Each structure stands twice: as C-alpha cells, then as structure tokens.
Amino acid sequence: MSLFRLIIQEMQHRKINFLLGLVSVVIAVACLIAALTLLQADEIQTTFILEKKAEEVKEAGNQLEDAMRKITKGLGFNILILPANQDLNEFHLTGIVAGTMPETNVKTLAESKIVTVNHLLPMVAKKITWPEKKCDVILTGTRGEVPILHRALKKPLQQQVPKGSMVLGHQIQQKLGLSKGDEVQLLGKKFKVTQTYPERGTADDSTVWINLEEAQELLGMQNLVNAILALECNCAAEDRVAQIRDEISKILPGTQIIERGPPALARAEARNQAHASAVASLEQEKASRIQMIERHADFAAVLVPLVVLGCGAWIGFLSLENVRRRAAEIGVLRAIGLRSTQVFGIFIIKAFVIGVIGALIGYFLGYGIGIIWGNLPESVNPEEALFSGRWLLLSLIFAPVLASLSSWIPALLAARQDPATILQEG
Amino acid sequence: MIGKNMLLELVELSKSYKSGSKRVQAVDGISLTVDAGEFLAIKGASGCGKSTLLLMVGGLLSPDSGQVLIEGTDPYALSSDQRARFRSTHLGFVFQQFHLVPYLNVLDNVLIPALATNRSQAKARANELISHFGLEHRLHHTPAELSTGEKQRVALARALFHQPKVLLADEPTGNLDSENSEIVLNALNQFAKDGGCVLMVTHDDQAVKSAQRVLGIKEGRLMPETETEVLIKS
Asked: Would an 8 Å CB–CB cutoff place B120 in contact with chain A?
C-alpha cells in the first residue's frame, strides 16, 4: 500500500470528479498550446507568403529590367564620349560630331576597370548626300558593342550591322521607297537593306547605318571614330555625370562626356522608383502580416489567461468538493496516524497526476487544433512544422503546476481538518 | 507513579465546549487507570461525554486540563507529527460507523496503517489478520460489497494491524446483529487477554457484559460504583 496507490484508487472510484478535473486541465493546456501553435502557424505562413512575395517582386524586377532594356534600346545610349577637339556648341546646334579620336580609345576603355558606364558602342557619323539617291542622310557606322572585359558579358542593346548590310531610318526608308531585302548602292558600294526602323521622331529617322569599318572606309576615317556611345550604370551616385566624367577622364584624358537628355534620367528614376515600389509593397505585406500576428497574439494574451484562470478556479472548486466528500476518510487516516503533510500530499499528488495526464492530452489536442486551423501552405508538413518538444515540456510543467496551485488551498484545508471534529460528526 | 502493568492513566481530564452562549462541560475531571490485559467498558447515555473522552485518550482532542498517559507518555506533549506517529504505533481505533475507505478493497483497507509507518511484511500481516477474521474470500471486495459485520471485522483488522497497546472502541457493536457483535466482542476480549487494554464506550448491554470492568459516565463525570451497577442493570 502506498499513497500513490491510494490516490489512483480514489481517482478510479470518483471518476466524475477526476474527469471534470482532467477536462479542466485539458482545456487550459489545449487553449495555451493551440494559441502558441496557431501563432507559430501564422509565422510560418508569413515567412512563406513573404518569401513568395519576394520571389514575385524579384520576378517582377527581372521583367521590369527586361522591359527597361527594351525601352533603353528604344531610347538609345545616354552617355556620349566625344573627342577632345569636338566643339560642343556645334554639336548641340547640328547634332553632328565633326571631331575624331582613335578607335583604340574604345579598346582602352573596354580593358579598363570602369564601373560607371557599360555597353560601349564606337561609331562614326557624318551628314552626307547619298549620291546615288540624291538625298541627304546621316551615315552612321557601328561595329557592335565592345564588351567591357572585367564585367560579365551583357546582352547588347544594339546589334552589330554586318558588313554589306544596311539599316534604314524610317524617313529615309519612306522617302526612297526601300524595304527589307532591297539592294542599293552607297558611295559606289553595294549594300543590302537588312532592317528598317519604325518612326522614332529623332535624327534616327534620317540615318543610314552600315558596318563601322565600311563606313570608315567610305568616309576616309580609317581607325578613327567620332564618338563612343555608352549607357550609364545604375550604380552611379547622386551627381552621376560628374562621377562618370571623373572616371572616364582618368582613362581617356581629354575626352568630353555628354549626357543625352532627360529620358535617360527619367529611365533611371523610373527604374529606381519601380524597385522602391516593389520593396514598399513587400514591406507593406510584411507590416500587414506582423500586424495580424500581433492582433492574434493580443487576443491570445487575453483569452489564454482567462481560460487558465477559469480552469484553475474550477479545479480548485473540484478539489474543495473532493475534500468535503472525503472528510470522514481524512479523519480516519489522521486517527490511524497519517501526518498532516501526508494528507496534504494525497490531494496535491492527485492534482499533479491530473496535471500530467491533462498536459499530455491537452498538448496533443492544442497541437491538433493548430494543424487543422493553422492553414499552412501545402508545401509545409504541418505535423512536423508545428510540433514543439519545448511546448510539450512547457505543458508538462505548466499543467501540473496549475493543477497543484489550484488544489493548494483545498489540500491545506484537508491537512488542517480536525480529525476529532470529523469523527464526532461521523 | 506508573504501575507495572498500567498501560493507560487519565488524570483529572476535563474538556468543555461552547454551545451557543453556554459552555458545556463534556468531560469533568475524570481520572482512571487501565492495566494491560484489561477490557474496560464505559457506559452512559448519549451526550454524556463518553466519545469526547475516547477522542482525548486517542490523542485526537487535547484536554482543557488534566493528563493522558499511555505507557507513561503524554501524547499532547508531543508535536503534531510525533503524536500521529505515536497513535499509529500505540493506539487502535474501532468506530461504530466503521469508517472504511470506500474505494479500497479489504486488503488495502487493512493495509492503510502501513502508510503511516512503512511496516515491513505489511501484506503478510494484513493477510494474517484477514484470515483471523475469516475474510479471506472477501480480500478484493470493497466495503460496499460487504455486510455490516464484515465491515466491522475489517475495521478491527485495520485497528490491530500495528499490534497497538491500547484499543479504543466507540460503540463497536452499535450497528451489528448479535452474531457479529459477539465476534467483535470476542476479538476485543482476545486482544485484552493477549496483553493489550481495551477502552470501549457503549450503551449496548451485551457489549457491557463482555467487559471485565464497567464504569458509568454521567454529565462528564465517572459515576460511583453503586450508581454504575444500577446503570448496568437498567
């Protein structure tokens, strides 16, 4: 015979009292664990949603970048590197670069560690009268983009015009009635029209593009170029042009740098704005999720203590009722020689046992509620993600403590009962 | 001075209760001695103070004045826990209502005193007592499944578990038929013959006749022998 056996036998005998006590502990623990598990589910959900959102933003960013590339292609390069001898005033008045510089400048720039620009495109351009067609055009020769060697290779904004090929601006194409596939003579040399551009509303509409080497030969400008076109890098600081000028002047001293108009600035700003807007959207989603979790946590912070208090009070009441019903038994046990601490122990150990059993049932009930109502994404295994050994341990500490504390006063009353009074009444 | 065979001595024992605005003297200056081997019955009407006297002797109700000495030890001079242990080793209790623990079977009810002392061979001792009282076939029955006579025999077995020196019986035959009363009274007699002492309070004539000595109690005081004889005959 042991106190534990006595306690177990009593619990089996007074099943209703035991079950009501157990249900109270189960409710308290399940409520606590369900709240914690659901909050955990919220966090998992949030992480998942934000990761997805970040991926979407990244994807959207990539799409935007691609779109920007296309726009950029349409708008053209925004940095012009001009020879030292070019009169800028004349350039602004005519749009034509008369000055020249060695073509090797392009190689020098490509082999440098330059970071403020990319997409280098050497060109010659001269306003001529197309003798065979008796028409004024801007003859432009390009050889395609020169890769900057220390950078990863970028997709070119403008493709090279192959030798023997010709690309026509919209106005020229319309005026001369030429179309793709036609063969024409220019300055005595035969070319095939390989492409025609739609209307751009700029000097491009009156431009004829041919291969750089052929253009140099036709214009008598072997190994010379009029300008190098480039695209500013988005990494430039606030005073972008100044930074670009500073860097290029160190590599190609004497050259002049011009930024080609507001579209480039708008483009950079739009790109930054789009990025900021995507980040803001992500931040907004994050803030909204955090706000939701905080709302749930606030609700749990009120609900859980209320339920725990209610259950604790109910367990206390059940213990008191148990003590009252067992008054004669307590009197006899005391008369037989059990110490008051042993009588106290009978009630506290009983509460503790109920607490342990209730903790186990309550934990798995709360965990089950978390799995069912947690609404986790399909890719997450809820059983694995929401199980917490730490919370199981917390339940196994919390519930016995709750049950024992709730039964403390009834147990004390039992221990302090006067056996003489009980036996006289019995 | 404690006599060679004296197990129990009460010296000027008094106890009063407050009942409403009045003070009731339940026990009033009772002195007596009980020797080993003696079966003493105390007879009196309901409310005369006999149960109060028994609780005081049992170390459960401290007297207002006077002294209880069991084998020379005053249980009220001991701490609460020491007194509980003293009760478990020196005293046995038998009640009219049996006071068996309803959810324990016969064996476990008899084993309850083992909770207080961790006696070795407890189960063997319990089985011995159960056999002695002819309850082997009821070993695993709960009190609800027993007859009143069987219940009182279980209570007796429980009281005798620790082989106490003093057995205190409060109306032990009050709820029993004559056959079961005889079994219980024989057991009390046997306990006394084996060297213990029995202090029984009762108003059952059959029980009184079994005792070696009878004392009458009236309004908390022991009655003179002549009055006791009248009381017994009445």
From this structure: no
Give the model confidence (pLDDT) of A95-137 as tens digits. 788 889 999 988 888 888 887 777 788 889 888 999 999 999 9
Q: Is the separation of the CB atoms in A145 and A156 below 8 Å?
A: yes
The reply to whether A321 and A355 lie within a common domain is yes
Average pLDDT, chain B: 88
* ipTM attached to this prediction: 0.86
The answer to whether the CB of B78 falls within 8 A of the CB of B86 is yes
- The answer to whether the CB atoms of A337 and B89 lie below 8 A apart is yes
Which residues of A fall within a CB distance of 8 Å from B112?
1, 6, 332-333, 336
Give the span between the Cα atoms of B130 and B139, in whole angstroms: 8
Point out the residue among A10, A341, A423 whose CB comes nearest to the CB of B60.
Answer: A423
pLDDT digits (tens, 9 = 90+) for A1-22: 788 999 999 999 999 999 999 9
Tell me the count of A-B CB pairs closer than 8 A: 88
Which CATH architecture describes the domain B6-233? Answer: 3-Layer(aba) Sandwich (3.40)
Distances (CA, A) of B181 to B141, B205, B214: 22, 11, 18
Q: Which residue bears the tokens 């027993």?
A: B146
Listed by number, the residues of chain A in 321-350 with a beta carbon closer than 8 Å to a beta carbon of chain B are 328-329, 331-342
Are residues A30 and A159 both part of a single domain? no
Q: Inform me whether the pLDDT recorded for A338 exceeds 80.
A: yes
Answer for the pair A215, A143: CB distance below 8 angstroms, yes or no.
no
pTM of the model: 0.66
